[in-house]
Each structure stands twice: as structure tokens, then as C-alpha cells.
Amino acid sequence: SMLESFLALEFTELTIIGSRLSQSRQQEALVLETLLREYLETLKLPALSFIFESTSLDERGIDRVEVSLGSSKMATLSGGEFNRVRLALMAVSINNKSESQGVLILDEIDANVSGDESIAIATMIAKLSSVYQIFAISHQPHLSAKADQHIVVTKEGDSSKVEILNDEGRVEEIARIIGGENPTSQALEFARKIRT
């Protein structure tokens, strides 16, 4: 009976701690929702919300958290939507930080998105570049145009060639992304326009 009393007391104490943890989670979730709202709007996404569901006490506390984006659950988001949420989370994490945060390698993060969404992604990545060294692989002109440096990788047979482009080479490569192997004068003009 002493052991049962001890376990009951411990369970009560853990439930109180779980309740405090839940309250803290919910407060922080509201703060994060507010911070993310502007970034998600910039990235052409609806607001993100955290949905808390009470559960029995376990090693994670007394609640389970589900994340939704507008009316969609995280599990049903497209790859493009999920990548834009990740960018927004990274952008929130750099608020008021000036020191380097490390290296990001983004492999076609702007794939399968519209033109407006591609522009929004390029703008967000440019913001992230203030604290991250970013290597972005892209086949979209907007991201390539925002980069500080443009590297083209080509493959010939079994060997690859890497070339760092000068300003005119960048314009030509962006025009090639827009118009194919033989870009038109309109593609070249548009490439010059988005490079500025």
C-alpha cells in the first residue's frame, strides 16, 4: 500500500508537470503562429496553426500536437508547400541574429511551384542568405537571378564540368533556363531585367 501511495503521488506530480508543459507549449505555439504568419503570407501560403489534443500521460506529456496549414494537415501537403513552410520556419529562426548559422543545401526547393511562388521563394532565400551560406540547385530563373554567384554544372560523358559565370554568362544562363538551348532576344531581355 505504501508503494501504491507513492506511485499515485508520483503520477499526480507528473500530471501537474504535464499540465504546465502543455500550457507552455500552447503559449509558445501562439507566438510561433504569429511570427510565421507574415512569412507564410509572403510565400503565398495560408496561416499555420497548432492543434492540441489531450491524451493520457506518457513520456511526451498529456497532449498531442497536430499542425495544419489552412485546412490541410501537414501529412497532406504537397512537396512545394512543405518546402515553403520549412523556409518560413528558418526565416523565423534568424530574427535578430547576425552570426552565421551554417550551410543550407537546397535541391530544387522551387520545383513544382507557380511563378509568383518561385519569386517568393527566391526572396525568402535571399533573406536567409544574410546568416546562412546557401547552395541552391534550381531550374527556375528567379532563384538563379537572386544569387550572389552562379555556378553551372554540365556533364559530358563520364565527366562533369563546373563553371563560375561572370555577369554576362549569368544573363545567358538565365535566358537559357527561360527559353531553352537557343534563347530568344525576349528571353535575354527578361533575364537582364530580373538580374537587376
Question: Any overview of this molecule?
Answer:
The structure is a single chain. This protein is an alpha+beta fold. The chain has helices at residues 2-42, 79-93, 115-128, 141-146, 167-179, 185-195, and strands at residues 48-58, 61-69, 72-73, 102-107, 132-137, 151-156, 159-164. The strands form three sheets. Strands 1-2-3 form a three-stranded antiparallel sheet, covered by helices on one side. Strands 4-5 form a two-stranded parallel ribbon. Helix 1 (2-42) packs across helix 2 (79-93) and helix 5 crosses helix 6. The longest helix is centred in the N-terminal third of the chain and has 41 residues, at 2-42. The radius of gyration is 24 Å and the shape is elongated. The model has no long low-confidence stretch (mean pLDDT 89).
Short description:
The chain is an alpha+beta fold and 196 residues long. 51% of the residues lie in helices and 23% in strands. The chain is built from six helices and seven strands.
Which tags fit this structure?
196 residues, alpha+beta, three-stranded antiparallel β-sheet, two-stranded parallel ribbon, 6 helices, 7 strands, 51% helix
Which oligomeric state applies? single chain
Distance between the termini: 78 Å
Output the strand order for the largest sheet: 1-2-3
Report the biggest beta sheet as strand number plus sense, adding barrel if it closes: 3 strands, antiparallel
Helix content: 40-55%
SS-based structural class? alpha+beta
Radius of gyration: 24 Å
Shape: elongated
Mean pLDDT rating: 89
- Pick out the low-confidence regions: none
